[in-house]
């Protein structure tokens, strides 16, 4: 279970968000990642991000970095 709590690299997460329209809510990001086949580690990383709305992929990457 320790593996599940390890932080994902933002690049690993972003590949599941390719083509995402921004601004986007955290829930929108999670739905898109699920649709693109993201595993539970990716989804958990998105769930743990601080913030509810993201203006760009850069915002998502920064939020992933702050959630470590």
Helices and strands in order:
Blueprint (H helix, E strand, L loop, with lengths): L1 H4 L4 H5 L9 E2 H10 L4 H9 L4 E2 L2 H10 L2
Antiparallel strand pairs: 1-2
The overall pLDDT, averaged over residues, is: 90
Number of strands: 2
How many structural domains?
1
The gyration radius over C-alpha positions equals: 11 Å
Going by helix content, strand content and strand pairing, the class is mainly alpha
Low-confidence runs: 1-5
> What fraction strand?
5-15%
Count of helical stretches: 5
Helix-residue proportion: 55-70%
The quaternary state of the protein chains shown equals single chain
With strands numbered from the N-terminus, the spatial order across the biggest sheet is 1-2
Question: Which series of helices and strands comes N to C?
Answer: HHEHHEH
Give a description of the structure.
- With 68 residues, the chain is mainly alpha-helical.
- The protein has one domain.
- It is built from 5 helices and 2 strands, in the order ααβααβα.
- The chain has helices at 2-5, 10-14, 26-35, 40-48, 57-66; strands at residues 24-25, 53-54.
- Strands 1-2 form a two-stranded antiparallel ribbon.
- The radius of gyration is 11 Å and the shape is globular.
